[in-house]
Here is the input.
Amino acid sequence: MGNFSKDKLLIDLSSTHPEKTRELAQLLQDNCTMDWVDAPVSGGVAGATNGSLAIMAGGSEKSVQIARDVLKPLYSQLTHMGAVGSGQVTKVCNQMIVSCNVLVIAEMIALAEKSGVDSSKIADALAGGFADSKPLQIIAPEMANSNFTPVKWRVKTLLKDLNMATDLASTQSTATPMSALAAQLMQLHGSHVFLEHDPATLIKLYNDKK
Here is the structure.
């Protein structure tokens, strides 16, 4: 920790287990009285490029304000969620929604196809309704058209986040049955050599396309 000092601030943009984040932040504070802000992001490469990321931050009010200024080119929204670790908890919640959503979209596309519906029209048909979402608009057309490249994100990332969610739920004695099932399905898909593939390939869990 030779380069760390109390007049510096560590801003962590990665997605890390909340408990590990708190441990590292405390270690940093104990050794050099340096503050830590956990600031995981949502919005992908496009969001970072366009400066439209959503950032969920954990840390002291003073440190998060500094992070707001430093990270300004990257985000359209930065929310202070509470003490160190709160940003990571919020990111876990985000990934629970995204991961379960992607799996339901795969189920839905497969059902539509087997029922004689042109699944390539689903995203447009549902746009603006209660079922609409960014994952629907992005991934449903890819699933419908078996368009799995280029790889924009990976199955293994969603699996990691779901495992983190179920582990966090266990430590808090809270049930997360949908996320637990999603983790099992994601693990099954990954075991078929899809860990490094785009989540659009999750449609292969439900149909007979090669």
Notes: Residues 86-114 form the longest helix (29 residues). The mean pLDDT is 95.
